[in-house]
């Protein structure tokens, strides 16, 4: 696909990208490289100058716009909730457009509010300005999911909130995605967010040029160009810890093994989490838990001495 704006600006110069169903793909790149333009071409807010966009084999330009809205959820920075409508009405927007009965719209809105962790009884009647930034963000995600779209487009969805809330929303969002399994294209310019959320990351440079398209570990281990190397940063080696599962260096322990006094991390964590827990607690080892059961330990030296090819790629 490509987009040349009326004034001759080549925002996207011919990009081909295959997004596997059920995966979360992150578009990242410097300001003005065409990320938002790509996203808006997918949902037809912007007409491509050239090329085609297929969803499940259907060209989006052939799909009726109302049907397209049902199939594609869209979340933007600062959410874009309608200020004069209640949160419940906001979340019910697309189902209403689709002509669902009032009761069904309401039930669906409340179900979605629950799903994103907003109590419908408490928040349903409020207006957007009566919510915190993080709560508005969750309402925005609920609205985008309301008609059960197969595709979710998210343009810097977590950038308008402070870093702590952002971290929490990202965690919640990963849990939500594990439950709903949408195909997601997410735009960010935060490499840590990209590494944390993406199954694959597409690094774009000016004009929507695809510099590299790879899973986070591979991107960090083997940047395909100088541009990508600069972009992922000199500390990419440390970032790789954040995509390496604990299992690579964990020593298994049997039941009854004494780990009293050690900091602990869940077995779903990464080497980054283990190192952070040890540094925070000034400990040389960390216990690895599966729920309440200790299943292994990881030591600082095991992380530092891990062979390079054991670290994720
Ligand atoms: N309506 C327009 N008319 C002309 N040029 C435009 C228009 N909209 C965007 N552009 C230009 O197209 C290029 C890509 O813009 P786009 O918003 O897609 O970038 P982006 O990567 O999302 O940037 P950012 O990270 O800053 O949001 C930029 O050079 C921008 O100035």
UniProtKB/TrEMBL annotation:
Keywords: ATP-binding, Nucleotide-binding, Transport. SUPFAM superfamilies: CBS-domain pair (SSF54631), P-loop containing nucleoside triphosphate hydrolases (SSF52540). It comes from the Bacteria. Signal peptide: none annotated. InterPro entries: AAA+_ATPase, ABC_transporter-like_ATP-bd, ABC_transporter-like_CS, CBS_dom_sf, P-loop_NTPase. Residues 2-232 form the ABC transporter domain. Its EC number is 7.6.2.9. One of its GO terms (molecular function) is ATP hydrolysis activity. It holds the Pfam family ABC_tran. The keyword Transport applies. Belongs to the ABC transporter superfamily. This is ABC-type quaternary amine transporter.
